[in-house]
Design goal:
The chain has helices spanning 16-26, 36-47, 52-62, 66-75, 95-98, 102-113, 162-174, and strands spanning 87-92, 133-138, 150-152, 155-157. It has 175 residues and is of the alpha+beta class. The protein is elongated. The protein binds FE2/S2 (inorganic) cluster.
Length: 175
């Protein structure tokens, strides 16, 4: 008998609240496929990242192929295919932010969180052991006039200094 473990992923379904939200949003689009991004956002909000079971479920709901869902998930950096922290901290490192010391902000975050920066292929590398934070570098967040900036989940924080970073982390740690 093989001693290999066979892992069977639990099927995914929307919980009651997300099912209601999905039912409401799907009616706003002329074709189901057009609701791909908000549907994936709902699913990611429910489980934290996009598993193969989520892709299969979303494909069924939107009547498209799993491969089409996979293409979208792979294309957009806001979707994750492996676990991330409760708070994903995106640090812009494009030129206008670089000129206003985003490196200092990033180094401060690395020191405070005692973690490295996640890479596309290794999100765990930038995730704190308690699963609270994931630290990432990203391209322009379209707020260059208030550089340097970070985005924590969906919230933008601008004109950052080390002191402001400390305040943000303290607030999040207390939640
Ligand atoms: S370069 Fe950082 S927000 Fe545009």
């Amino acid at each position: 008998m093989s001693d290999k473990l066979i892992q069977i992923e639990t099927p995914f379904v929307f919980n009651g609240e997300n099912q209601r939200e999905f039912d409401a949003l799907i009616g706003r689009y002329p074709v189901k496929e057009a609701a791909m991004l908000p549907t994936l956002h709902l699913a990611q909000r429910q489980v934290g990242y996009i598993t193969p079971a989520v892709m299969k479920y979303v494909a069924e709901q939107l009547e498209v192929s799993v491969m089409k869902v996979k293409d979208v998930v792979t294309f957009y950096p806001m979707f994750f295919e492996e676990p991330v922290g409760e708070y994903v901290i995106r640090v812009c490192h494009t030129l206008p932010c670089a000129l206003r010391d985003c490196k200092g902000v990033l180094d401060h975050l690395k020191a405070k969180l005692d973690t490295d920066v996640a890479s596309e292929t290794n999100l765990a590398k930038g995730t704190t052991p308690d699963g609270k934070f994931t630290l990432m570098k990203v391209e322009c967040l379209a707020s260059c006039d208030v550089a340097p900036v970070i985005m924590v989940n969906g919230d933008l924080h601008k004109n950052l200094t080390s002191e402001k970073v400390d305040e943000i982390l303290n607030d999040l740690s207390e939640k």
